[in-house]
Amino acid sequence: MNPQITNLIIILVMMQASKKIPFDDPNVLNGVRALYIVSNLIIAGVYIYTKMQIDKKKDMTVLKYVEPAPMGSTEEPKAVTTTIHSYDQQQLRGLFKAQLMGVGMMCVMHLYFHYTNPLLIQSIIPLKGAFEQNLVKVHILGHAASGDLKRPWKANAGFAGMMQGQGQGEI
Question: Can you tell me where the transmembrane regions are (predicted)?
Answer without folding.
Answer: 32-50
